[in-house]
Amino acid sequence: MGKLITGIHHVTAIAGDAQKNLEFYAGILGTRLVKKTINFDGPDVYHLYYGDEMGRPGSIMTFFPYKGLQRGRHGKGMLNTTTFSVPLASLDYWLTRLKKFGIAHKEPEERFQNEVVVYFEDTDGLGIELVFNNKDARPGYSNGIIPAEQAIKGFYNVEIWEEGYERTAGLLTEQLDHVLIAEKGNRFRFAAQDTPGNYVDIICSPDSLRGLGGSGTVHHIAFSTPARAEQEDIRKKVLERQLNPTPVLDRKYFTSIYFREPGGVLFEIATAGPGFSVDESQEHLGEALQLPPQFEPKRSQLEQTLAPIGIDLANYL
Ligand code: ZN
Fold it and tell me: How far is ligand 1, taken at its centre, from the CA of residue 9, in Å?
């Protein structure tokens, strides 16, 4: 039997202002807005998806922006840092770019061998890193503003802080097809496949405060499963571990189940397809507000509630 989980699908976070969010991710980082839709569970806010050219699993960062929402707090029981992969030789380019746009960052540091990381935060305080490495064969996406040889290729890893790592590690390795591939100090790196975009680092941090939800915090992480049949099999395995998964929910671009892992982080299992070109062409991804059929009758009302957002990429060269 093939693997039921192939790696990371997406990371979803809570933001404050939608316009600032767009400027940070599409403008400064140069990822592509691949879908502008609404929160299917609360349609008065956007759901913005950024990724590579097609929004492939392993590159998709998504946000629910709630204007004026109080900031949350990073801490244990939370995914605190999402790390994007860039070429090793692009370090000077990115340090110059962060400075140009006034983004404060920590000094570059080596993590594992041939991995140099730079930590900074988005406009809401969400933890972001760039990892400079030569391990990533994906092409990267420039959004027309970043030179191709410097562009973000997708995620590299995520960082989850836990009281203790064993129970989460047990779930990852016994039910979710991950293996431990590296460890250093209190960092334990798991992956369903040993390629950039799929590394899940568990940080054992018993002394930190518990994380609190709010803007600038991650809502959930989704792992990728090939299709519905594998999703059903994973759901059974999660049920056997008594983690109470939701029924399969139709998210239009994939189907999903959700459950909370033992340390408190919300996990989702999402199918790899059908993907973001189900309702607009590849060329025009992210341009128009897309609604699932159940909200289409409310379109004009929703368009009045949601403040328009837009970006002139020429300002981000
Ligand atoms: Zn999700």
Answer: 8
